[in-house]
């Protein structure tokens, strides 16, 4: 347990299954990251907006409607749930994920980022 939150138990293979390739870059979807970092989407988005200069387009970008539909069609993510998404998801590269752990400023984010970085190293393009 880190602070008042238990680390989400995920292995390298599970994290690797959350890594996608878009625009020639390996990325992770914001909703997967919020689950791993144990924060809600609002907090993640707020911290990104407050620190937007740390997230240039090579670190984070928003998927197009076509890219998002591709994810749904590949069963990578569900479009079901409590009303679905209102906005297209943002995705973060390995460098963007490193920045996220810094701006979220929590022990859970730091520990999980290390696990994610190790998974990026062994993920197949």
Automatic annotation (TrEMBL):
Domain KilA-N DNA-binding: 18-103
Highest taxon in the source lineage: Bacteria
Cross-referenced InterPro entries: KilA-N_DNA-bd_domain
Pfam families tied to this protein: ORF6N
Name of the featured protein: ORF6N domain-containing protein
Origin species: Catonella massiliensis
